[in-house]
């Protein structure tokens, strides 16, 4: 009986040590998103005394690879940050990442949205384009086309012959991410060729 109790106590202690030894994943403030201009980003780990290294070139940071994080970062162009936390005697954290899209088009979009009334914002979610604000907000007209199994007709000069793709529910059943990228490239490329700014896809439609 004593042996069983001792074994349980040892297992419990090992579990507690293992739990404590895992460093917290680095977090970003603010997080991924669209930003109009230079954005200051802070990277933190909730593990006290943890050191953080980060990269911006797509490689995975390690305790010996990447830039030592010492102060908030000023992000001026579209950038993906990857970071890892580490501390002596503890297992390094998993790599975390955050993407920041920064350009002048985002600034213009934010300016337009800030000028819109609530009714105008609601009108935009009806899926009929932006004709209600094109004149008053000096926003260029955009056209959208149906999907998701290929490009549909979207009005004069914005639709035409296009590739008839398989139903997305069939694509999803393959779990083939490479094929999904090809599917998206075909649909997106043809939508763009007909001067559409948006395609109602991709999605997994119901079985009909």
Shape category: extended
* Residue share in helix: 25-40%
Oligomeric state: single chain
Q: Output the number of helix runs.
A: 6
* Unreliable spans: 13-19
The proportion of strand residues reads 15-25%
User: In angstroms, what is the radius of gyration?
Assistant: 25 Å
Order of helices and strands: HEEEEEEEEHHHEHHE
First and last CA, distance = 62 Å
What is the averaged pLDDT score? Answer: 82
What does this protein structure show overall?
This protein has 208 residues and is of the alpha+beta class. The chain is built from 6 helices and 10 strands, in the order αββββββββαααβααβ. It has helices spanning 2-21, 104-115, 118-124, 131-134, 168-174, 177-193; strands spanning 27-29, 33-35, 39-44, 51-55, 67-68, 73-75, 79-86, 96-102, 144-146, 198-200. The strands form 3 sheets. It has a 5-stranded mixed beta sheet with strand order 2-8-7-4-5.
Descriptive labels:
alpha+beta, 5-stranded mixed sheet, 208 residues, 3-stranded antiparallel sheet, 32% helix
Short description:
32% of the residues lie in helices and 21% in strands.
């Amino acid at each position: 009986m004593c042996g069983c109790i001792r074994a349980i106590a040892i297992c419990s202690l090992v579990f507690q040590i293992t739990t404590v030894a895992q460093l917290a994943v680095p977090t970003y403030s603010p997080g991924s998103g669209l930003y109009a201009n230079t954005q200051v980003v802070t990277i933190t780990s909730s593990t006290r005394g943890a050191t953080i290294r980060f990269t911006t070139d797509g490689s995975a940071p390690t305790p010996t690879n990447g830039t030592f994080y010492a102060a908030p970062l000023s992000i001026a162009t579209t950038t993906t940050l990857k970071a890892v936390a580490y501390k002596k005697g503890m297992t390094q954290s998993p790599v975390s990442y955050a993407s920041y899209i920064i350009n002048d088009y985002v600034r213009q979009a934010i300016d337009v949205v800030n000028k819109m009334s609530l009714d105008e914002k609601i009108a935009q979610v009806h899926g009929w384009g932006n004709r209600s604000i094109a004149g008053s907000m000096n926003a260029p007209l955009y056209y959208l086309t149906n999907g998701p199994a290929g490009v549909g007709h979207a009005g004069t000069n914005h639709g035409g012959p296009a590739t008839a793709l398989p139903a997305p529910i069939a694509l999803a059943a393959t779990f083939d991410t490479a094929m999904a990228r090809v599917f998206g490239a075909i649909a997106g490329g043809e939508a763009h060729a007909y001067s559409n700014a948006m395609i109602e896809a991709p999605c997994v439609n119901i079985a009909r």
